[in-house]
Design brief:
By secondary structure, this protein is mainly α. It contains 5 helices and no strands.
Length: about 230
């Protein structure tokens, strides 16, 4: 089966890949319309244009895969046909994934728009009610202030509770260390001759201190008289 010039397998595949890339780019643009902070109450012209572009590209890709399938069915090279069949299957899988992604994004935008419109309606109703009932608005304001104060008190109570717990933990640790020290001293006092040994060590330290102090004083006197 012959094909017109410029409609060969390689050229059609190149067109398919190019359209797949354009689809990904348009998906990125289209997904931005579901952002809660920027979504409009009704679809904007840009949103409708992007959605129309996506639908058009998907239809063009569907036509390309059909043409690729026709070229493949006319091929007599079995080895080349197996490779081309894999390529065609891949294009079909990507096309199906992109159709599903378009449906998902369309539903996501619709859900976000419905939520934003509902929230806007509720806020409008609340504002209208407060405008028509200033006493109720004042009461709501006082209740909000009371809730904020209660929350502040709760936070302060939590911080104080943590501080008391830490302080109590330090007290337990001090008592534990004191108990250990008492046990060590008690055990040392029961060892024969330990008290005498400790006394001799203390006396030796005091004697060495006196000798060192006397030597330093002597050095100062020598320097004073001979300076």
């Amino acid at each position: 089966m012959s094909t017109p010039a410029g409609t060969g397998w390689a050229q059609l595949r190149q067109q398919a890949r190019s359209l797949e890339t354009q689809t990904e780019t348009l998906f990125h643009t289209y997904s931005q319309f579901s952002t809660p902070t920027t979504i409009s109450p009704t679809p904007t012209d840009e949103e409708n244009k992007t959605e129309a572009q996506l639908e058009d590209i998907l239809e063009r890709r569907e036509a390309l895969t059909s043409r690729l399938s026709l070229l493949l069915s006319s091929s007599s090279d079995l080895t080349a046909s197996a490779l081309k069949q894999n390529n065609l299957s891949r294009h079909r899988e990507i096309l199906l994934d992109h159709r599903r992604e378009l449906a998902r994004l369309r539903a996501s935008i619709a859900t976000a728009r419905d939520r934003a419109n509902l929230l806007s309606t509720v806020r409008s109703d609340i504002s209208a009610y407060r405008s028509a009932n200033p006493e109720a608005a004042e009461a709501d304001y006082m209740l909000d202030e009371r809730r904020r104060i209660d929350n502040s008190h709760s936070i302060a109570d939590s911080v104080l509770s943590q501080a008391y717990a830490v302080n109590e933990n330090f007290g337990v640790q001090r008592e534990t260390l004191a108990s250990i020290n008492r046990r060590i001293v008690g055990a040392a006092s029961q060892v024969p001759g330990i008290n005498g040994l400790m006394a001799r060590i203390g006396a030796k330290k005091r004697r060495d201190g006196i000798i060192l102090g006397g030597f330093i004083a002597l050095c100062f006197l020598v320097l004073f008289f001979w300076g």
